[in-house]
Amino acid sequence: MEAALCRDQEVAVGGGGNFAGQAAIFLSGVAKHVHLLIRGASLVDTMSSYLITRIEHSTRITVHCCTEVERVEGDVSLECVTWIDRRNGVRETRRIPNIFVMIGAEPNSGWLYGTLALDKKGFVITGTSSGVREHPLRNQRHRDLCRGRRAFRFREARCLCGR
């Protein structure tokens, strides 16, 4: 379903592990372009070599090393994403309506603290009894913000920005 929403659009995948690599390759088959945003200097220590090879040979995937998402913007839904290259401080803003955050088994979700409900391990709590669906920043047009415990599809910039 997520792939259909990305058809002919640029998307971002955050993460440098195998799960992120698989998502980037899969999405490159339908998306206009995939931006793979990783905090590390390379994929070598965190991703299988066969995935790295496929990503390097894809003209529809760009790997942005030493990069962090700095800002997401949108009115009703996500419209733009700004990331910063920590090596040189250069910021890039792209019209990207979908971000897939693949944080793996050790979440780097501290930036969501106070915005979304997190469990004691730092995973975003999903489901109808707690978490996102009851969160005060949820608006009427909210679509599923989280799918599972490891991959998150951000469709509402208001939830992320606290607007």
Structure explained in plain terms:
The protein is α/β, with parallel strands linked by helices and 163 residues long. The chain has a single domain, classed as FAD/NAD(P)-binding domain (3-Layer(bba) Sandwich). The strands form two sheets. It has a six-stranded mixed β-sheet with strand order 3-2-1-7-9-8, covered by helices on one side. Helix 2 packs parallel to helix 3. The protein is globular. 31% of the residues are buried.
Residues in helix, %? 10-25%
Globally, the shape reads: globular
Main sheet: strands, sense, barrel: 6 strands, mixed
- The arrangement of helices and strands along the chain is HEHEHEEEEEEEH
- The class by helix and strand makeup works out as alpha/beta
For the largest beta sheet, what order do the strands appear in spatially? 3-2-1-7-9-8
Whole-angstrom Rg: 15 Å
The span between the termini is 27 Å
Task: Summarize the entry for a quick read.
The chain is built from 4 helices and 9 strands, in the order αβαβαβββββββα. With 163 residues, the protein is of the alpha/beta class.
Which helices and strands, and how do they pair?
Elements: H1 2-5, E1 10-14, H2 18-28, E2 33-37, H3 49-56, E3 61-64, E4 67-73, E5 80-85, E6 91-95, E7 99-102, E8 146-147, E9 151-154, H4 157-161
Parallel strand pairs: 1-2, 1-7, 2-3
Antiparallel strand pairs: 4-5, 5-6, 7-9, 8-9
Helix pairs in contact: 2-3
